[in-house]
Amino acid sequence: MNAQDNLTSVSAVELRRLIGTKAISPVELLDACIARIEAYNPAINAITATCFERAREEARAAEQAVMHGEPLGLLHGLPLGVKDLEATAGLLTTYGSPLFRDHVPAQDNVLVARLRAAGAIVVAKTNIPEMGAGANSRNAVWGATGNPFNPNLNAGGSSGGSAAALAADFLPVCTGSDTGGSLRIPAAKCGVVGFRPSPGIVPNSRKLLGWTPISVVGPMGRTVADACLQLAASAGVSVTDPLSYEVNPAAFLAPARVDLSALRVGWTEDFGCCAVDNGIRRVFRAKIAAMRHLFRHCDEVAFDLGDVHRCFDVLRAESFVAGLHDAYQRDPASLGPNTRANYEMGAKMSLADSAWAQAEQSRILQRFQQAYQDYDIILSPTTPVSPFPWTSLYADAINGEKQENYYRWLALTYVVTLTTHPAISLPCGTDDHGLPFGLQVTGRFRGDAETLGVAQAMEAAFATSAALRRPIPDLATLAPANPALRSIVTAPPVFGAAAQASGVSAV
Question: Which domains does the chain have, with CATH numbers?
Answer without folding.
Answer: 3-255 (3.90.1300.10), 260-462 (3.90.1300.10)
